[in-house]
Amino acid sequence: MRCKRETGLAAIRSAADTEVQQGVIKAHAADFEAFGKTRQTYLAAVRRVLDTEP
Question: Which top-level group of life is the source organism from (predicted)?
Answer without folding.
Answer: Bacteria
